[in-house]
Amino acid sequence: METVKPMVVASKGKLRRKFAKVLNIHKLTGVAPEEEMKKIKFDSKNANLSESFYKLEEEYERSLALEALLAKLFATVSSIKAAYAQLQYSQSPYDSIGIQKADNLVVAELKTLSELKQCFLKKQVDPNPERTLVLAEIQELRSLLKTYEIMGKKLESQYKLKDSEIIFLREKLEESTKQNKLIEKRLNQSGQLCNPLDNLHLSALNPTHFITYLHHTVKSTRGFVKLMIEQMKLAGWDISSAANSIQPGVFYYKQDHKCFTFEHFVSNVMFEAFHLPYFSTSSDSRSYKNKKQSKAEKEMFFERFKELRSMKSKDYLTARPKSRFARFCRAKYLQLIHPKMEQAFFGHLHLRNQVSVGEFPETSLCSGFLEMAKRIWLLHCLAFSFESQAEIFRVPKGCRFSEVYMKSVAEEAFLPAPESSPESEPRVAFTVVPGFRIGKTSIQCEVYLSLS
């Protein structure tokens, strides 16, 4: 810049002299010569360019110095962060030498921060900002690397600690499992943990046994419904549309509640003609309720209950392919799984053709169906083993809820809805699981309540 300044000054001097000469000529003639005016304009342009260049260079140096100061500031902060991380790491486990080193480093970096502050206040410019920028970047990267190394060591020590905790908890779990097995063995020996349906005699049969087995039946039914919904999703079916085709116009509190619609459909099919012997709709079965059930008939149903309960469905069907239970399974499957549904699930009707001739292939859907069919058939046998034959009932749509005869599958029905009026109350949309009566005992049906 030293070479530029004299030229600027000389230009200014020349400019003044030119203006004086022009003014004198103007005074004498009243008009400035053309050549003189061109020279004045050219010299004025050079002077303005030189001043602009000088200002830009000064501004660039000022911004570079400020950038160097900020870079050094952030690098110092990163160093303090790394030193503080080292200080924390050295405290657990306790390392006095590491703590002393980290403390000294923190103090030194704080002093550097104080010096940077004074430089900024006194406007002391860094003589070599480019070098400072590079050194600050190197310092910051080193600090970050050190911080990550300390974090890695800390995570590694935490991992070892958690690993030791897992080993301890596993040993504790094994010990608790052994104790539970020992307690279970003692309870079994004392007869306090036996299944109420084990070693059951007809004379000791009561509604509690029926309720217990009903819970098993509902569990297997819901397992089959889950399998069926999974097959629908794999086949690309619209679950909402399918549920709406079974029960149109129902308000569901959650999307997941639509599974109850399919459970309602499956229960209706499987429990159809439950009140008749062997689920038969023949004329003899229709008149069965009009005659009193004999002791021999009750014993027959109870023996069939015990016989099938002790066997797997597949084994029983293989041993007795022409039994009433086999006919029941074939009829219910063909009624429950529509040909279009099977075509969508598997792309063919081979499964349906096999079931029609009495063969149930080893598929998840067939296995789930046979388990459900067995439970419902056994519940039917148990119902006909009572002195007072068990009766099945369902609640019509639109009925008011009654805690005596009903149980809601959705607790959300009892929560106040913001858009509903205080007078409105949820009504029965459909029966999910039917209810039963055995003498004077009523077993609640499970219903889905919806706002009308």
UniProtKB/TrEMBL annotation:
<protein>
    <submittedName>
        <fullName>Protein GRAVITROPIC IN THE LIGHT 1</fullName>
    </submittedName>
</protein>
<dbReference type="InterPro" id="IPR056813">
    <property type="entry name" value="GIL1_IRKI_C"/>
</dbReference>
<dbReference type="InterPro" id="IPR040225">
    <property type="entry name" value="GIL1-like"/>
</dbReference>
<feature type="domain" description="GIL1/IRKI C-terminal">
    <location>
        <begin position="392"/>
        <end position="448"/>
    </location>
</feature>
<dbReference type="Pfam" id="PF04859">
    <property type="entry name" value="DUF641"/>
</dbReference>
<feature type="coiled-coil region">
    <location>
        <begin position="138"/>
        <end position="186"/>
    </location>
</feature>
<dbReference type="InterPro" id="IPR006943">
    <property type="entry name" value="DUF641_pln"/>
</dbReference>
<keyword id="KW-0175">Coiled coil</keyword>
<feature type="domain" description="DUF641">
    <location>
        <begin position="63"/>
        <end position="186"/>
    </location>
</feature>
<dbReference type="Pfam" id="PF24994">
    <property type="entry name" value="GIL1_IRKI_C"/>
</dbReference>
